[in-house]
Amino acid sequence: MSSTTAEKPSFVRSMVGGLPRPFWALWGGTVVNRLGTMVMPFTGVFLTQSRGMSLAAAGLVMGVFGAGSLLSQFISGVLTDRIGRRVTLTGGMVATAVFMLALGYSTSLPAILASMFCLGLVMDIYRPASNAMVADLVSPEERPRAYGLLFWGVNLGYSIGVTAGGWLAQLGFLWLFWIDAVSCLIFAVLVWRAVPETRPQGHESTGGFGVVLRDRVMLGFTLVVLGNAVVYSQTLSMLPVAMTKVVKLPLGTYGLAMALNGVLIVIVQPLVSGWLGRRDPARTFALGLVVMAAGFAMTAFVTTAWGLVATIVVWTAGEIITAGIPGSIVARLAPSHLRGRYSGLFGFAWSLAAVLAPTLGGVLLELGSKALWFTIGGVGATAAAGMLLLGPAVRRR
To answer: Domain 20-140+166-195 belongs to what topology?
Structure first.
């Protein structure tokens, strides 16, 4: 009994110990913010049902949001380095709350378009600032675990928030907008009160992204991340279409199977993040990409709900392996006074994938399931090979 008792605190410390208090304030604010993330998963339903838009008009509105999101990462990267991490994060959250409510009360198409563009512009401004804060606050050895814990918190909060949002939407969509806005304000206040400004002093941080774009290793890594993001973004774009329209799974069955993704991440990821964080980041990331690619390629053979569950288990394992690794690689590549810009380019890859994934996936799915999922698997495998090629350069940094 005594040995078991002694092991437990050590095991807990390996998961959550050794990280500074400001990191946990950032982590707590992120979880609260993700708990309140209820609007975006139901935006299409809100636009078509509550505002009576056609599918074409709703698609236009979502496209405008995507355009704002593409710009936001560059803007945030510059602001994070110039005016500071804390100001950029809190300002972005306050602005998100304002435009979230503006969208909720907008009724005309011009007002909705303007609100959605502004929302896309400010909603993810916090990401480069948050990534730079973690790099500033946490030692290099602990960064993979810290980024992994943020990843875990995002999934925990999001899974609960989406579930609650589905119920609250039945009472009225305005509930979703207000809860989302309040969660953004709580995040802003928590960071402003509990996280000090971490921007390094004594460095000149002017200009745009020229320095980042001249870093060939970072550009190569951004392409790897883009491949990873195009693969994973299929879970939000073509996977639900393929499973419900082609395989003919009931929507409820599909939703129940997809819930397994969040459950596995919440249970497994904290248990392995410390161990994975001690491995070589380039090789670990490449391994996760290969596993994820295999899981999506297997989807070409899915004909039943149990087949879908098997593929979800595989690509979720890849997702767990990669969790926390990309952020730590960006922190390793970036000079301390340019972490915002480097994180902004990293975030841009994900924003661009959100535009490319449904476009590419829609064309491929028209050719057939095998064309889509084998191509997506090939993209993931290519990204893994690129990561292995970049490995020596990453290790030299």
So the answer is: Growth Hormone; Chain: A; (1.20.1250)
Which tokens is 372 given?
């889509």
Compute the distance between CA of residue 73 and CA of residue 80 in angstroms, rounded to an integer: 10
CB 184 within 8 A of CB 94: yes
* pTM to 2 decimal places: 0.86
Express each pLDDT in 174-191 by its tens digit. 999 999 999 999 999 999
Per-position DSSP letters for 339-372, written without gaps between them = HHHHHHHHHHHHHHHHHHHHHHHHHHHHH-HHHH
Cα distances from 108 to residues 67, 69, 122, 176, 320, in angstroms, run 20, 22, 21, 19, 42
> Helix crossing, 21-35 with 126-137: angle to 10°?
160
What sign does the CA torsion over 41, 366, 349, 284 have?
A: positive
Give start-end residues of each CATH 1.20.1250.20 domain in the chain: 20-140+166-195, 211-397
